[in-house]
Design a protein that fits this description.
Low-confidence stretches: none
Oligomer: single chain
CATH topology of one domain: 3 helical TM bundles of succinate and fumarate reductases
Distance between the termini: 79 Å
CATH architecture of one domain: Up-down Bundle
Strand content: 5-15%
Helix content: 55-70%
Largest sheet: 4 strands, antiparallel
Number of strands: 4
CATH superfamily of one domain: Fumarate reductase/succinate dehydrogenase, transmembrane subunit
Order of helices and strands: HHHHEEHEEHHH
């Protein structure tokens, strides 16, 4: 008598890998926003905690490799399968044209928002990486045997006092631009974050990006717990929803602290 063999589909495996990578990225997002929240000049000794945390991260050996393995690869896997799911998903939380029923229940709406926010995050993450890692990343130079970090900023009344507190030297490049020479990467990045969020357009875009990330992360965490058998009963699943909402609120607060507190609330 031959024993029956159960074949596991590739879709089943990829869904579990996608879920696992998503869980890892939720943990990273929490750490990332906790660090960035310290850029709020009305928190953490006027950015002092942000500077120290960034300096510690930047001092890690083989940092590009660590970032690629622990962030880049999980993000790429999650994004690729996420795009596939977003393009093949059949949403039925809205109106109906008669071809399929409309089911405007809470979890159906959450499923739809998970797909919609995935598109916001796809373009938001690409834009964020290009901007912060390539276009505005502080440039490291050697001056008299000492490492200095150069970043170009827009002048304003509060820039010079903050630069003095950070030990940053400013030199005028033009009436619209100032070159900052910082002794540490953390100080340069604090000024870079502050400069980015001087723009109302960037504040608006990053606020939308943040709200999408907070919802996508914690709603995804809720489904992760179900996918991996942590929440089996309907009662436990319902009980986890308020906790997920609290988590969304916490991530949103941390992100908004950096977006709004690095410039607008500190003036």
């Amino acid at each position: 008598m031959q024993s029956a063999q159960t074949e596991i589909s590739s879709a089943f495996i990829w869904r579990r890998v996608h879920s696992l990578m998503g869980f890892w990225l939720v943990l990273y997002l929490g750490v990332h926003l906790l660090t960035n929240s310290q850029a709020a000049l009305w928190l953490g000794e006027e950015g002092g905690n942000f500077v120290r945390m960034v300096n510690s991260l930047e001092s890690l050996p083989y940092l590009p490799v660590v970032e690629a393995v622990l962030i880049g690869i999980p993000l790429l896997i999650h994004m690729l399968w996420g795009v596939h799911r977003a393009m093949t998903a059949r949403l039925n939380a809205g109106g109906s044209n008669g071809a399929a029923p409309a089911l405007p229940y809470g979890r159906n709406k959450a499923f739809a928002w998970q797909r919609w926010t995935s598109w916001i995050l796809l373009f938001g993450i690409l834009g964020h990486v290009v901007q912060m890692r390539f276009l505005e990343q502080p440039r490291k130079v050697e001056v008299d045997g000492q490492s200095q970090f150069i970043v170009t900023l827009q002048p304003d009344e509060g820039l010079a006092p903050l630069a003095r507190k950070l030990g940053v030297q400013l030199s005028s490049k033009s009436p619209e631009e100032v070159v900052a020479c910082a002794p540490t990467p953390g100080a340069a990045m604090l000024l870079m974050v502050r400069n980015t969020f001087k723009s109302p357009l960037m504040v608006g875009l990053y606020t939308i990006f943040l709200l999408a990330a907070a919802f996508h992360a914690l709603n995804g965490f809720w489904t992760f717990l179900i996918t991996w058998g942590v929440l089996l009963s309907y009662r436990s699943q319902r009980a986890m929803i308020p906790l997920s909402v609290i988590g969304m609120g916490l991530l949103t607060f941390l992100g908004l602290a950096a977006i709004w507190g690095s410039y607008w609330l500190a003036r």
